[in-house]
Design brief:
Layout: H1 8-16, E1 30-33, E2 55-58, H2 60-73, H3 78-92, H4 106-117, H5 122-129, H6 133-143, H7 145-148
Antiparallel strand pairs: 1-2
Helix pairs in contact: 4-5, 5-6
């Protein structure tokens, strides 16, 4: 085995992959933004800039440790930041749908309405269409409220 010296590029590359916390020899897996992204001043896509977008490359352990210190002493409120991030995302794209994806198709909805108009009970509609009775109730309340109580 040869004992060759590393080039400057190899040494810099090796250092870039390590956690920046002094004495830590673990691989850096997280980028910790010093200025919170939800503040609107910086974005995740912006390149590293020591003045405007400072980031630290750190390991998972030190990332969690930094957040614990911020929560306890820095006036950091995780809940507040999460809410601010959601609000920012909603303002960025107001037409985006939030929540769980729809699992009932438009065809099933029309079948429910047609079967109810023909006089079938909610339980029979449920078994016929292959959806729960709660889903039948929800469809009728939203699509055809007058059929729900008939």
């Amino acid at each position: 085995m040869t004992n060759r010296k590393m080039t400057l590029e190899e040494r810099v590359s090796a250092l870039e992959k390590l956690c920046v916390v002094g004495g830590c020899d673990k691989e850096a897996t997280k980028e910790h933004h010093i200025i919170p992204v939800v503040s609107g001043v910086v974005t995740r896509e912006q390149p590293f800039d020591p003045t405007n977008n400072p980031k630290l490359d750190i390991c998972d352990e030190h990332h969690d440790m930094i957040h614990e210190v911020e929560k306890d002493y820095g006036g950091y409120s995780h809940r507040t930041l999460i809410k601010a991030g959601i609000e920012k995302a909603r303002n960025k794209d107001p037409m985006r749908r939030w929540g769980r994806k729809k699992t009932i198709t438009d065809e099933q909805e029309t079948n429910v309405v047609q079967l109810r108009k023909s006089g079938l009970s909610i339980r029979k509609i449920s078994s016929e269409v292959g959806i729960s009775t709660g889903s039948v109730h929800r469809i009728l309340k939203i699509v055809q409220p007058e059929l729900f109580f008939s």
